[in-house]
Amino acid sequence: MKVCFKLLGIIVLSLFLSACSEQPITIKFSHVTADSTPKGQGALKFKELAEQKLPGKVEIQVFPNSQLFDDDQGMDALQLGDVHFLAPSLSKFDRYTKKLQVFDLPFLFDDIDAVQRFQNSSTGVELLDTMRDKGFQGLAYWLNGMKELSTNRPQLQRPEDVEGLKFRIQESDVLQAQFRALDANPQKMAFSEVYQALQTGVVDGQENTWSNIYTQKYHEVQDVIAETNHGIILYMVITNARWWDGLPEDIRTGLAEAMAEATEYANRLSNEINLQHRTEIEVAGKARIQTLTPEDIAQWRSAMAPVWKEYESEIGKDIIDAALNANN
Ligand code: LMR
Description:
Helix content is 47%, strand content 19%. It has 13 helices and nine strands.
C-alpha cells in the first residue's frame, strides 16, 4: 500500500513537472518605431513565424514605439537579460564599437542595393559578431532606407541653408561630425523625444527616412524635407549572447530560421514602405518636399566629405574599402 502511494506521488510529481516544462518561453522584442515601419513589420513577421515554427514553445511579445525602452535603455536591459531582442539603428552602437560607424559615413553607399551587398559580404557578416565581448550577438541586418533632411525654414537646397541650425541626431559621433562639417549644431537625442523637440523649436531640423518622418509626424512640424539621400538607417537585430547560446538547440534553430525569413520579408518590403510614406507626406501637403539636382547633391557631398578622413582610422580603412566595393 505504502509503495502504491509512493508511486502515485512520483507520477503526480512528474506530470506536474512536465506540465511546467511545457510552458512557452516568453521572449520580449522591444523597438522604437511604429508597427507600420519596415522594422515594425519585421518584428511582427518574426513573432508570427517563430510561434508557427515552435508551437507552444515560445511566446514572442513585441513592444513597438519605445513602449518598453528607448534604444540606450534597451541595450542596458539586454545585457541584464530583461529583454531578449532589439533592433537598434547601427548609429546607436557607437558606445560599443567604432567599426559599425562605417554605416554613418555620409554618401558612402550609392543606393540600398549597395547596402544589401555590403551587409551580405564577408566583412558585413563578420561585423555581426563584433560586439560579443559586450554581450551582444548580432543575428541579422534589417533595412529601413535612405535618410532625408528636414528643417523648419522655407529653403533647404544647399549646405548654406542649414548653417547655424540645430539638428537632432542619433547617438553617433560620425553624425555629430557630419553636422559640424555643415556649420550646423547637432544635438544627440532619443527617438521618442524628437517630435516634441521639433514642435517646440528645441531643434530646427532632423534627418531620417520617409517612414520614420511620416509615422512620427515630423512632416507636420517641419516646413521642408530635402531629398538628400545622404545616409542610411539600417538596423542590427541583436540578442543577449549568453542567453542565445544557452537556449535548447531546437528553440535556437527555430528562432534562427524565423529570423532569416523575417529578415528577407522586411528587407523586401522596406523600399515599398518608404515610397508609400513619401507619397502620404506629399498628399498631406504640410511640409514641402524639395527635390535636388545633381549639382545640389554634389554640394552636400563635398561639404560632408571631411568626415571620412576624420573617422578613417577609428573605423578602419579596410572596413571603409569593403563598403565602397559594394557600390560596384
Ligand atoms: C532614430 O533614432 O532616428 C532611429 O534610429 C529610429 C529607428 O529605429 O529607426
